[in-house]
Design a protein that fits this description.
This protein is of the alpha/beta class. About 35% of the residues lie in helices and about 20% in strands. The chain has two domains: about 5-120, Enolase-like, N-terminal domain (Enolase-like, domain 1, 2-Layer Sandwich), CATH 3.30.390; about 125-385, TIM Barrel (Alpha-Beta Barrel), CATH 3.20.20.120. The protein is built from 15 helices and 16 strands. The strands form three sheets. An eight-stranded parallel β-barrel has the order 4-5-7-8-9-10-11-12, surrounded by four helices. A three-stranded antiparallel sheet has the order 1-2-3. A three-stranded mixed sheet has the order 6-15-16, with no helix packed on it.
Length: about 425
């Protein structure tokens, strides 16, 4: 027996593990999703989410044209080496398109490893640190009354943590407010919807919203808020300070973070916990933020952060600096991402919270999964791998539908951060 064969007997021979097919599936069950499916010679399949909201076809092309040809013939068991090949081996590194494509490969390979070893993914990562992952739901309302009523509905459903977003008087279409009843789907139109933003109106309003929510729902429920990159650092500092009496779980993405140092200023002025990073793609996007303890929660999740292999490194690095995870979990991340994230959440020692925006029934049908919600927590299942599959026949019934995210302008027409 060669050394290679001896090491890998529990997951079959190199020939069994050889990747013989990789397919990119684009489908739109209520919204667009891109999925990578990898198949080994022994017939084991794994899937990974590759959805980048509003830029789906760019990732599909990156996968089809540049990744899939490099996958065929590779050993599916060599997850680390494959990650290094696509990241380190490439001259053009990082960025959302590349890292989402790499994530899809990585998650599909971890899924395959789980199936080959008959282990749920959390077990391969090191076993459970907890049974269920605390999640936060989304309460959105066109005004304070409606928002407070929505918070009440989530409390009644058993949620322990709730993100609250409300329409702002004088702002026509504030971030987070939906025409839909159960979900917020910002990518509404084929070309970007133009929205108008007013920082002064928003800053006046938000403390009133949270004062009311604390009055109506008490101190125990965890409340969160997403600023969605609209403020300058000093404005973010002001908002954080004014929200202190309402002890938020976090204030999210209060300012764009291309300049990581801008969080030094926010941090100096407020003890409201800070979360950031759903648009980050690698450790390098948050290295300064983390090592200087400028944030409390890192939101970069599996699908946009290079997969489990890279996000695990990010989480370990964050743990050294007292930063906890708070993964992005909007509906534009597919159940395949959620499944992988929940296994990660079950394992990761420095877990904070998991976002949970429920998918539409059509989405859930296309992606059968074994995770479940109970008492404010999501529980990953015990099936081998990440526990999410794709019904390809059903997926084929929902063709791609072009949609882009909105843009924002100030009241004088100046382009702003959406
Ligand atoms: C949001 C998302 O979930 C969040 O925190 O910021 O709704 C975000 O707008 C979408 O995921 C964009 O694709
Ligand atoms: Mg967000």
């Amino acid at each position: 027996m060669t050394t290679e064969a001896a090491i890998h007997t529990s997951v079959g021979t190199h020939r069994d593990r050889e990747i013989v097919a990789a397919e990119v599936i684009v489908t739109c069950p209520a919204r667009n999703f891109v999925t990578l499916k990898i198949v080994t010679r022994s017939g084991v399949t794994g899937i990974g989410d590759a959805t980048l909201n509003g830029r789906e076809l760019a990732v599909a092309s990156y996968l089809k044209d540049h990744v899939v040809p490099n996958l065929i013939g590779r050993d599916a068991g060599r997850i680390e080496d494959t990650w290094q090949f696509f990241y380190r081996g490439a001259y053009w590194r990082r960025g959302p398109v590349t890292m989402t494509a790499i994530a899809a490969v990585d998650v599909a390979l971890w899924d395959i490893l789980g199936k080959m070893t008959k282990q749920p993914l959390y077990q391969l990562l090191g076993g459970r640190s907890r049974e269920g992952a605390l999640v936060y739901g989304h309460a959105n309302g066109k005004d304070i009354d409606e928002c407070s009523a929505e918070v009440g509905k989530y409390v009644a459903l058993g949620y322990k943590a709730i993100r609250a977003q409300s329409g702002v008087p004088g702002i026509k279409k504030a971030y987070g407010i939906s025409n839909l009843k159960n979900a917020y789907e910002p990518a509404e139109s084929e070309l970007p919807l133009e929205t108008v933003w007013s920082t002064s109106k928003y800053l006046e309003f938000v403390p009133k919203l949270f004062e009311r929510l604390r009055n109506d729902h008490g101190d125990e429920i965890e409340l969160l808020h997403d600023v969605h990159h609209r403020l300058t650092p000093i404005e973010a500092a002001r908002l954080g300070k004014s929200l202190e009496p309402f002890h938020l779980f976090w204030m999210e993405d209060s300012t764009p973070a291309e300049n990581q140092r801008s969080f030094e200023l926010i941090r100096k002025h407020t003890v409201t916990p800070l979360a950031v990073g759903e648009v980050f793609n690698s450790i390098w996007d948050c290295k300064h933020l983390i090592e200087n303890q400028l944030i409390d929660y890192i939101r970069t999740t599996i699908v946009h952060g290079g997969g489990i292999t890279h996000v695990r490194r990010l989480a370990d690095f964050a743990a050294l600096h007292g930063v906890r995870t708070g993964f992005h979990g909007a509906t534009d991340l597919s159940p395949a991402c959620m499944g992988a994230a929940l296994h990660f959440d079950a394992w990761v020692p420095n877990f904070g919270i998991q976002e949970y925006m429920r998918h539409a029934p059509e989405t859930d049908e296309v992606f059968p999964h074994d995770y479940s919600f109970k008492d404010g927590r999501l529980f990953c299942g015990e099936s081998p791998g990440h526990g999410v599959t794709i019904d390809e026949k059903l997926a084929a019934k929902y063709p791609y539908s072009p949609k882009q995210l909105p843009v924002a302008r100030l009241e004088d027409g100046t382009m702003w951060d959406w």
